[in-house]
Structures are given as C-alpha cells and as structure tokens.
Design goal:
The chain is of the alpha+beta class. It contains six helices and five strands. The protein has two domains: about 130 residues; about 55 residues, OB fold (Dihydrolipoamide Acetyltransferase, E2P), CATH 2.40.50.140.
Length: about 200
C-alpha cells in the first residue's frame, strides 16, 4: 500500500473516484460506477488518512457535489461549471507537503484535471441536453387515425396504427383484421370503433 502514498497516484485515484461518482449520480443504473467509485474513494481515503492534506481543499471537494446536484436536477450549466471548477481546485491542492501549496506534480495536476473536467463537462452537458428534450411522439395525434385490429377485441385487445402496436379498448366486439378508427385515448390505451 506504500505506492498509494505517492501524492501523484493518490491524486489520480481521487480524480477517478470523483469522476465515477459524478457519472453515477448522473446515470444511475447497474451499480458498476458506484462500486468503482467506492473502491477509488477507499484507496484515496487511505492516502488522505496517511498523507498530510489541506483541510480547506477537502471542504472545497465536498462542496463541489452541491452545485453538481443542482446542475443535474435543475439542468443548469452554470452550476455544472462551478462544480467542475471546485472539484479541480479541491483535488489539486488536497495533498500537502510542508511549505508547499501543491505537492502533486503540476504537469500531472493540470493535464489530468483538464482531461477530467473536459470529460465531465462533455458527458454532463449531453446528459442535461437529453433530459431537457421533450418527447417528439404526440399521442394525441393518434386520435382520428385508422388502423387494423391485430386481435379479437372484446372490450380489450390490440391494434396497429401508423406501424405501431397499441393496446385498445372498444364498447363493441371487433373481429381481428377489421379496420378501426381511434376515437380518443385513456393514457396509453386507445379507445376505438370499427369502421363500417
């Protein structure tokens, strides 16, 4: 574990943990990102426990999560930029050597922070764009459309309208293969009638 006591490696592991945890917050799912982030934070935590650190830099790192949360929830790119800036500053100055502000190699610090910040910015902006996009499928546009019954409809069944299969409901029995018209919708269920 003595290899982890190199501030440069500890810094890179910490950046990896930060990157993975921010990605896990933005895209929860399988748990792989979460587990990887915890592993990186355990290794970085050992280094933080063993090496000297600037406590103010650790506070800045912890605070950087708050604007990131508001950026993701509020879809605000200014909060995202503030979060990335705080994260980079906190991580760069976290590890301390006596009499030095920056114990990490400046080249390692600037290159890895720049790459991490650019990656987080790119992924988070794309994520914000995706969640801000409204669905393009207008279900109300199906009203008045004609289609074909794909099953016998005795109260409930399925129809095909505009190349898509839909659940449908009718007051009257409709045999499979009949032409139908959409009258209205009830959620994702189309209310239909048989075309005579």
């Amino acid at each position: 574990m003595n290899i982890l006591l190199d501030p440069n490696l500890a810094y890179l592991i910490l950046l990896g943990g930060i990157l993975l945890s921010l990605l896990a917050l933005a895209t929860p799912g399988t748990g792989v990102l979460e587990i990887s982030a915890v592993f990186c934070f355990l290794l970085a935590g050992y280094a933080i426990y063993t090496l000297s650190i600037h406590w103010w830099a650790l506070v800045i790192l912890l605070i950087s999560v708050i604007p990131f949360f508001f950026a993701v929830r509020g879809r605000n790119k200014i909060f995202l930029a503030v979060s990335i800036l705080l994260m980079v500053i906190g991580a760069m100055f976290l590890f301390a050597r006596e009499g030095e502000w920056l114990s990490v190699n400046p080249l390692v610090a600037f290159v890895s922070s720049g790459i991490t910040a650019a990656f987080i910015w790119f992924v988070a902006v794309k994520f914000l764009d995706v969640i801000a996009t409204r669905p393009t499928h207008d279900l109300d546009a199906l009203i008045g459309q004609t289609g074909e019954a794909r099953s016998n409809i005795d109260k409930d069944g399925s129809i095909q309208v505009n190349g898509e299969l839909w659940s449908a409901r009718s007051e009257h029995k409709i045999p499979k293969g009949s032409s139908v018209r959409v009258l209205r919708r009830d959620g994702f269920i189309l209310i239909i009638e048989k075309i005579e």
